[in-house]
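Milestone M4 deliverable, item 7.
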Amino acid sequence: MPRETILIVDDEEDIVELIRYNLKSEGYTILTAGTGEQAIKIARQSRPDLIVLDLMLPGIDGLEVTRYLKNNDQTAQIPIVMVTAKGEESDVVTGLELGANDYISKPFSPRELQARIRAILRRRRKTGETDTPAGICQAGDMVIDRARHVVTIQGEPVDLTLSEFELLCFLVDKKGWVFTRGQIMDAIHGENYAVTERSVDVIIVGLRKKLKTRASYIETVRGVGYRFRDQ
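Output delivered:
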């Protein structure tokens, strides 16, 4: 049974209870917050393994909470699943740009949310399973340490979100191969993941921006998808 701690952030008590009930039945430890301010405080104090975050909150909204947590060294690596209302695609894109890992739209199936959470936490556990040289790969002067979740260029660390890191690892493992957006999302989020193609592009844009002068390593293949340049 899972032993991870999940923070649920929503001002609707019935939604909180629904999520709490279903996640507790899976063995997770549950924390809750009804406002963005509470969410930030609890996240800093308790360091949950994952946050389920409603975007529409009183006071500080979910996007501001995401921005704060992802810009704070203590909380930057905590995965965030955004809960959105229909018609909030622009907010979804903004959230992904800020570093959120996934999203689910209301009304949603508790089983779908559970599946999304299991997938994220499973990937997170895998990145910390081993700390051996086999977990390190290199592309030019860029070094990727999977076990420590660290990317450096010329020895300088590059701060990536979990999705950016996993996308980079996936492409580097298959240098020169071209992948569609659907194949990329299946690889980093699992099959049957409901996401728009624009969301994949958002992750790519964020990754290239952070790689700076090495952004050209990730090539766009017009009409197909993306590949990591075979140097």
